[in-house]
Amino acid sequence: MNTNWTHPLEGQSVGKAFISYLVPSVLGMLVVAFNFIIDGIMVGHKLGSTAMAGIGIASPVYTLFVAMSLWIGMGGATLYSNAMGRKDITSAKQIFTKSIMLIMLVTVAIGYVAFTFKDKLVYSLGANAETFPFASDYMNIMLLFGFVFTIENALSIFVRNDGNPNTSMYAQITFAVANIIINYITLYVLEWGVRGVAIGTIVSASLALLVLLTHFFKKTNNLTFTRFKWNNKLLASLLLIGFPSFLAELGMSVFSVSHNISMDRIAGTDGVASFTVLNYIHGVVLLAFLGLASAAQPLISYYHGANQIKRVQQTIRLATKTALACGLLLLVIVQIGAPYFVQIFGNFSSGVTDNAVYGLRIFTFAYVFMGVNFVMSTYFQSVGNAKMAIWITAAREMIIMIALIAILPSFFGVTGVWLAVPLSEMLVLATIAVYYRKRSLTDRINALQAE
């Protein structure tokens, strides 16, 4: 144990530390989101709405790889920061080594096993005869080489938790810029179609990984590989703490599949295409909120490990206020600009365009609650309250949402599909409020009994 080592967070106020993580985290995520938007524009204009629908159907595979990297990456990074807060450098290095090795082994195995069942998998995700060729082309590349992206994503989390959010941001910018350039070449010059989009993602992730590796040459680096023994208790703790992050990304797959299937049943391929347009825009917001939560996580994890409770509370207050302000701002922007946002993806039929605009204006009410839910889930995860973090994530993206999307369309048609997520986010935030009220009451009773 190294008791002479001082973490950069020790010399900063909570407000200054939060801003120093918030700006690069959100900026990096927004650049990645901008890249996804450009991808959507290029695919929409070059290949049309059916190709976009195909990518949307196959996107859960991409999301699954992200989910695996976040599960192990966030779980490992949280324990890593907890250990750094205790100034237990040896344990921190062992946690890092185990996490990176685990994510590599797991995602390679998943990708190659799933590849053997790829055709059945495409149809089970909601593909039809029109969308199958596009979904299959995208999925084949992602299953074979998606492990590159997962390693890059997990390492980015560790670099941020090692006090270097700027390098994580530079890697995200590298990924985004490279992806735009490569996708332009593969789509418009080489004309490789949807397959070229998937190749662009993998190559760009490889370049971003090279940027992250520069962190290992910095004097402030504590991420070094070391010998270790597999510790079942530590592994279980890592997987439990990281599980809410896995659920959050897996929930995006559930979100995409459930909406694709519902839209295909109610409105056909045009309905799926309109949802895919909305999903591109929704992806920007999700990444912005993820950037906000990612900025708070290293601080909360470190302060919790160092037993600096007041700093934990200050961080969560700053993060929730920021999330609420962003949610309200997004609500106003999307209500005003919905038609313009939809039009930039291509000249679609009126059925696709009108449904996407209509859906976006309903769906955007979710953002008022969503950011706060993101932050609170991250808070509970960072302090080791995995049960509450799992409930928030599972309820908002699976349990309540699936129930609503199964029930509401029977009464409200396509409007019911668009309403499912906003109502789900609102109900989950209500459960968080109830939990806090009960916990506060319990704390007051315990304090009185102690007297």
UniProtKB/TrEMBL annotation:
Topology in the lipid bilayer is annotated as: Multi-pass membrane protein
- In terms of superkingdom, the source organism counts as Bacteria
Question: Keyword set for this entry?
Answer: Antibiotic resistance, Cell membrane, Membrane, Transmembrane, Transmembrane helix, Transport
* Transport in keyword set: yes
The family database entries (InterPro entries) matched by this protein are listed as:
MATE_fam (IPR002528), MATE_MepA-like (IPR045070), MATE_MepA_subfamily (IPR051327), MdtK-like (IPR048279)
Task: Give the matching CDD domains.
Answer: MATE_MepA_like (cd13143)
Principal cellular location given in the protein's record: membrane
Cellular compartments annotated: Cell membrane
Q: Which residues cross the membrane?
A: 18-38, 50-74, 95-115, 138-158, 170-190, 196-217, 238-257, 277-303, 324-346, 358-376, 388-411, 417-436
Q: Which family does it belong to?
A: Belongs to the multi antimicrobial extrusion (MATE) (TC 2.A.66.1) family. MepA subfamily.
Instruction: Provide the protein name.
Output: Multidrug export protein MepA
